[in-house]
Every structure is written in C-alpha cells, then in structure tokens.
Hints:
This protein is mainly beta and 144 residues long. Helices cover 0% and strands 40% of the residues.
Amino acid sequence: MAALAGEPQWVFYDGKVFRLMGGGSRPNSDADHERDSMARRFIASMETMTYARTVTLETTAGDVHKTTTNNTVGNAVVNAATGGLPGQHMWVIIVNDQLSGKTVSFGGNFKSAGALTGSPGKSATLQFISDGSMWYEVARTTGL
C-alpha cells in the first residue's frame, strides 16, 4: 500500500541537516513493509575530514566520512563528536597515502574491532551503528 497524503513522518533536525527517521503508523496495520521508506535512490552526504594526529568525526555532517592519511602526520586517532542517534549508521573511508602504511585507532564513542593498519596506496571502509551513546563497528573491508 502506498503512503497516504497527509500521513505523518518523523523528521529530525540536528542543527545542520534534516533526517527522515521513519513514517507514522496506520491504525490496525501490522505489516512492517507499510512503514518502510522506499525511494528510487538515496545518496548519503559525505564529510571529508582533514587528516591529523587526532581527527574529530562530525557525526551530524553526514553518514559517510572520508580521510586520506598524510606521511608527515603519521598515525592517528579518530574520535566521534557525538554518540549518534539510536539506529544511525555511518561509514568511514580511510585512504592510505602512497609512502607508508599508517595505523588509525578509534577513540571516544567507538567500540571497534581494533586499530586499522593500512598499506601504502590502499583504502579501507568501516561501517558503524549507534545505540545512542556509542558507535559499534559492524563491518570492515581492507586492502581496497
């Protein structure tokens, strides 16, 4: 069944962007698919983070965050600015520079599978999900 005109939708404004959090419920409806948001295309916004010894990931700047290591900086720690919203997903892309592999650790508000050790010229992607206070790593792909 298609959404009805005038049906309520939950929208959250975090001070920078609006986020569609899910549809309103219909009386006497028990089918989960009737509350799903469906779209032809969804494109997440991406934050490009400056690589430094301490990188602060701004969780309200989008769902995808990318940084490229720098040989003059060396290893780094990534901290999340907030613990996110319950159920919020985010992806982190780390592109290693061509000169040497860097180790990137995850600090405040992260529960990760451990530090990421890069290889020269290779990239990694990590996916996290929030419980509202912490970001939990759910997937990691390295050597891209």
